[in-house]
């Protein structure tokens, strides 16, 4: 059972310590923000929010982070958690008291707030998981080609509603994508349409310019073409204009079952922020480990 003041008696300053390290990292590179937020999502959807995604592979174990769906996780997310963990452990009373999973949850809250998004109280008390395998990632993470039914069923498997799914998708209001993740929409889309017809024409042309055929696979572009460094509801306004980057983004507007929610949040950032906080809190409860199912890792990248 998670609770807000879980570390009140063991490490009462944990929130300030984490925030301080996250602020330092944020001042060095903005990538900290999307990298940490996506890391939290990919952690929670595979074996629950237990920092299983942070484990490094060893000679005998190929870990989650080396599954194809996780290879584009940016290193700055991992680095943020590792640095915050070191800062926490530098305080004698906090040493080996706070889980990597909780530090990731706190850091995620902090990067959202630092980029203009809402802040919220984080429930704590997660333990770190005891396993991490690439094989366990299969089928657990959404793909950018997903339609609404596929998105809903994957999120429902994690206790999240369609409303939660739409709110969380707005994480694509910042951060980057590599060209291969959406090139099917701008080249050879279908027999009838070379370009995905749900894509705004000018935006499609811009995407083709930024991502020419045979582009360097390391090239990444902003997912929100309008406010790429601000956590805001412009994501939903983009969808209304046909500027959703992935099929899984644009479908939230094209499918009439989800469009009313997109329209509501495009014009009401407060309502969106509230829904986002609710959904993030639910995401943070997925598959939480307690008791013998977990421990507090000394090194977030390795089992004790
Ligand atoms: C709804 C289904 C989702 C799909 C299909 C999806 C897919 C993707 C893909 C393909 C990328 C680009 C990766 C790359 O090429 O580097 C990406 C980036 C990102 N995603 Fe998602 N995602 C989804 C939901 C979420 C959720 C729920 C969150 C967080 C709450 C999230 C946060 C992010 C962030 C922040 C980035 C940018 C990462 C960076 O700049 O390093 N996504 N996502
Ligand atoms: Ca996990
Ligand atoms: Ca934005």
UniProtKB/TrEMBL annotation:
Transmembrane segments: none annotated. It comes from the Eukaryota. Keywords: Calcium, Disulfide bond, Heme, Hydrogen peroxide, Iron, Metal-binding, Oxidoreductase, Peroxidase, Secreted, Signal. PROSITE patterns: PEROXIDASE_1, PEROXIDASE_2, PEROXIDASE_4. It is found in: Secreted. Its cofactor is Ca(2+); heme b. PANTHER family: PEROXIDASE 35-RELATED, PTHR31517. This is Peroxidase. It comes from Gossypium hirsutum (Upland cotton).
């Amino acid at each position: 059972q998670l609770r807000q003041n879980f570390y009140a008696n063991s490490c009462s300053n944990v929130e300030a310590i984490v925030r301080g390290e996250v602020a330092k990292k944020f001042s060095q590179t903005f990538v900290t923000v999307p990298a940490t937020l996506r890391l939290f999502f990919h952690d929670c959807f595979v074996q629950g929010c237990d920092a299983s995604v942070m484990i490094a592979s060893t000679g005998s174990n190929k870990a989650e982070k080396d599954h194809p769906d996780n290879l584009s996780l940016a290193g700055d997310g991992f680095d943020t958690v590792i640095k915050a963990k070191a800062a926490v452990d530098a305080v004698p009373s906090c040493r080996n008291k706070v889980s990597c999973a909780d530090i990731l949850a706190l850091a995620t809250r902090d990067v959202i707030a630092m980029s203009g998004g809402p802040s919220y109280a984080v429930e704590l008390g997660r333990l770190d998981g005891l396993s991490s395998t690439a094989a366990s990632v299969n089928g657990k993470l959404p793909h950018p080609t997903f339609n609404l039914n596929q998105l809903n069923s994957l999120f429902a498997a994690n206790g999240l509603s369609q409303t939660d799914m739409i709110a969380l998708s707005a994480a694509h209001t910042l951060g980057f994508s590599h060209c291969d993740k959406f090139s099917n929409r701008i080249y050879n889309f279908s027999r009838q349409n070379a370009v995905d017809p749900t894509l705004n024409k000018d935006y499609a042309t811009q995407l083709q310019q930024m991502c020419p055929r045979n582009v360097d696979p390391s090239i990444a572009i902003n997912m929100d073409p309008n406010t790429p460094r601000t956590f805001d509801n412009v994501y939903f306004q983009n969808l209304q204009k046909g500027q959703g980057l992935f099929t899984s983004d644009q479908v939230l507007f094209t499918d009439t079952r989800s469009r009313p929610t997109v329209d509501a949040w495009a014009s009401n950032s407060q309502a969106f922020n509230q829904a986002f906080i609710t959904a993030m809190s639910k995401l943070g409860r997925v598959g939480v480990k307690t008791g013998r199912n977990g421990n507090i890792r000394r090194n977030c990248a390795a089992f004790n």
